[in-house]
Amino acid sequence: MDAIRTVIEPCETALRAAMLANDVEALDALLDDDLVFTVPTGQIISKEDDLTAHRAKLLRLDTLDVHEMRACAIDEMILTTTRAKLAGHFDGAAFAGTFAYTRLWRRSDAKWRVVAGHASQVM
């Protein structure tokens, strides 16, 4: 378990930093081309959908504080579950709350990238 966390924590940290900075180039490197992600509204988006939203600055995060993270290996991939407090704006509307994320990381081109994920707001 510790070895898995050692591998994936820097990736999760880089993803958090890219999301906070709205760094589309970094996000492009961290998201797999085959990404399938379910956002809190239930909409399923692709990598290009996510990058387009960041390019247009539809999602602006002011806070993304991770409270807990777990990681486990599943065959050649790593599954992470994270609980984080977020605050920011989406399409001009302010939001804040605690969110749970599930991400499936796949090694591709010698780098770990998110290939699937899900986010839900939790109480």
Provide a quick synopsis of the model:
The chain is an alpha+beta fold. The protein is built from three helices and six strands.
Query: Which geometry do the CA atoms define?
Result: globular
Distinct helical segment count: 3
The proportion of residues forming helix, as a percent range, comes to 25-40%
Radius of gyration: 14 Å
Instruction: Give the ordered list of helices and strands.
Output: HHEEHEEEE
Averaged pLDDT: 94
Largest sheet properties = 6 strands, mixed
User: Looking across the biggest beta sheet, what order are the strands in?
Assistant: 2-1-6-5-4-3
- Total beta-strand segments: 6
Distance between the termini: 28 Å
Any low-confidence stretches, pLDDT <50, length ≥5? none
Give a written overview of the molecule:
- With 123 residues, this protein is an alpha+beta fold.
- The protein has three helices and six strands; from the N terminus they run ααββαββββ.
- It has helices at 2-21, 24-30, 47-55; strands spanning 31-38, 44-46, 59-74, 77-90, 93-108, 111-122.
- Helix 1 (2-21) packs antiparallel against helix 2.
- The model has no long low-confidence stretch (mean pLDDT 94).
Break the fold down into its secondary structure elements and pairings.
Blueprint: H1 2-21, H2 24-30, E1 31-38, E2 44-46, H3 47-55, E3 59-74, E4 77-90, E5 93-108, E6 111-122
